Amino acid sequence: MLTTKHDDPNAKLGWGERLAYGSGGFAFNMINGIIGSFLTIYFTSAAGLNAGIIATILAVSKIFDGISDLVMGRIVDKTDTKMGKARVWLLRMTIPFAISTMLLFFVPKGFPDAVKYVYVFLIYNITNAVCLTGMLVPFYSMVGLVTADSYERGLLGNIQQIFQTLGNVFVNSTFVVLLTKFTESENTIYTQRSFTITIAIYCAIMVVVSLFCVFNTKERVKVGAAPDAPVGKKAPEKKENTMETVKALLSNKYWLLLTLGNFVVFTIIIFYSMGTVFFSQYVLYDMGQYSLLANAISIAQFAIMFVTPVMMTKISKEKIYTFGMLVMAIGFVGSGLFTAPVLLIISNVLKGLGVGLAGGMALGMVADTVTYGKLKTGVDTVGMGNAGISAAQKIGLGLGQAIFGWVLAAAGMDAALDQAGMHQPQSVSTAVTFLYGWVPAIMAGAMFVIFLLFYHCERDIKVLEQKKGIN
């Protein structure tokens, strides 16, 4: 067991437990990354479904996805087991998540088209709104339950981002290779057989790594206790109802700003994740370039997150996050302006640095917004607070997927051309380039300005603690 051998929520964690927590990010982000990057092209090029209809299904599904995050957050808040509030849900949901993901990439060929779309709607919502939510919300909540130390929370958030990035690098480097290995077609790698075998391999890895995370971490924070309660003091019996919790969150300006920021960042992430696939396929006409472009982002993101823990000793998490938005915006401007391979790689490196700076701070900042809200209102919102952030992230991912699908359909994308090994019309290439560069640049630039002007959570926590006489 790698779990740190103490129960003090304010004490430092050992590296074994830190890395065990981070491994959970590797597990779910592998699958989440595959869904984000390759699901649409699977539906269109392997299953032969219409991009516009698929986009609409994904967009409508986000309603259920967002609701399920809030429900799961409340479930986490109410859960009380020997394992704690969050880890038990990772244990319960990992195998259902693996099964539903495999079914998502297995649209039955013999079904009529109308039935196929119903199948996609049902399985997509089971996978995302039930199974992924049942893992993601508890996993994010663990940052505030494993430790109460602000630096440790920031470090855990940074470590899990490193592992998420490793998951991205692993997928970027192997997914297309495996599709190529298992395809039975001479014209395309996008066949049902190639996707079925490849997805099964990744799901098996996800289950093993998720269980490793569960059994090598420990929840120490007594949610519900007063902010200045002594270590180990039990939470009071009084439990806030759902409306009190929601009201507390909506009055928490920093939680609202961070929710917006996470929505934007994850919309951007899906734009470049899908964009790299479609850019390689329909602009460069060479899927062999996919790994190079995608890993330029992921490896830069991975590298910078070894620097951010040192930066946190000198600079606040929120300043690092804000600077990350600026770097990200510059990188996307480069993708909008340039097409030369070297310049594209440089632009993608900047994107990766920006995502690493912002993403590495996000989980620690969520825990800080929950702390700020508790100091201000007295209401604990660890489950619902993380659920709202998770909902914003998944809505951003889903909306980004939907927008991509709608734009591709409007640009005249024809799945039959892919299956025949032919090029899509130039309008599709132009649309992909716009979504890959300029739209994310505008979004990241706007978030940089907003956070620079209005986000000062760590400063205000210190002010509130001084007023309450908390050390």
Question: How would you concisely characterize the structure shown here?
Answer:
With 471 residues, this protein is mainly alpha-helical.
CATH superfamily: MFS general substrate transporter like domains
- Number of β-strand runs: 0
Overall mean pLDDT score? 87
Which regions are unreliable across 5 or more consecutive residues at pLDDT < 50?
Answer: 225-237
**Count of DSSP helices?**
16
Count the domains: 1
- CA radius of gyration is 22 Å
Report the end-to-end length measured between terminal Cα atoms.
Answer: 33 Å
Give the fraction of residues assigned to helices. over 70%
**What is the structural class?**
mainly alpha
Looking at the overall shape, the CATH architecture is Up-down Bundle
Which topology does CATH recognise?
Answer: Growth Hormone, Chain: A
Order of helices and strands: HHHHHHHHHHHHHHHH
Shape verdict: globular
